[in-house]
Design a protein that fits this description.
With 382 residues, the protein is an all-alpha fold. It is built from 16 helices and 2 strands. Among the domains are: 2-157, no CATH class; 281-381, no CATH class.
Amino acid sequence: MILNAVAMIICAGGAAMLVPAAYSLLKAPDEAWIFWSPGVIVLSVGAVLYYPTRGRPRSYVSRQSMFLMVVACWLGVVLVGTLPLMLSGRMGPVDAFFNSMAGFTTTGAATVTPEELSLALLLWRSLSQWIGGIGIIVLFVAIAPQAGFGATQLYTAARRGLGRAVGNAELLTYLGVILASTLLITADLSVSDHRDSLATAFREALFQSASLITGTAFSTTDWSAWPPFSVALLVLIMAVGGCAGSTAGGMKAIRVYLLSRNAAQEMFRLVHPRAVTPLVLGDRLLPERIRAGVLGFFFVYVATVAVGTLLIALHQVPVGQAFGSVFSCVNITGAFPGAAGTPQFYADLPATAKTMLAILMLLGRLELFTVLVLLSPAFWRA
């Protein structure tokens, strides 16, 4: 079943290569083979894997199979995406893997500037981001019925059923973070005389706040040159991220909301130790496993950033840049003030550091637990 799902995914990746292949025939015929050759080969391999592994839809699929399917499909399409980058001769296997992972996870990090790539390769990079952001979800909806379970169950392997608890509280938290960030940065830019008018300061503050909280990471200005308070605030909202179920990165607004509610309840319990304070979202009483899940996720999130920073720092990378690269990869924004996050920074990293950051992108894209659970002995025993 897992091989069948991977076969469909890599077939889709091979088919997607035919788009830049056709484009390169018009613009750069000599480069067309770097898309045609791997595209045809991947389609053939996918077909060979698909037909023998077809089977009747199953009435029950274990959670272990769902986790394996999600991770295997992502790794499969990322590995397929490295082929044109390697065949172009512009990067080696590690750089190709890093750039392919950055594309499909929609992180946007790169070891090369756009000017260093041909138009066909830029088109392929754009397609990989579209497939990672939208196409993968569509493909999983198609895969789920083949496996005999609904798409909702498959998404539960990533984003732990929190999507079902989403209500107006998350939306208000999400919009509130954007509004607060915009107003505070507008005031900071105005007081610091970084902008000529209040309207310009407000527009740039709103754009950068919305861009970074959604993981889009577009910029209309060099926000890393803004006052330290504004830069720090933008870095913090990267960690918040979008709403549950979205393709944005970060911890997600619903988790931030529930963490704040839990912290308020703990302070209340210090004053009233016998009080019963259930976790409520809107008009719903949430089970304690949701509270435990959110706290567990927060710990793993912090631990991942901390351990990742230490591992990158082992490569003689300054602490600030090590943290910035790990933070941007885990939150799949690809942006960070200063040197960290620039193509030159990633290009100069050792191969092992690039591989680690690529794995962190996958962890951030699949929200940590989906990948980390595969490292648990209990997972394989079950």
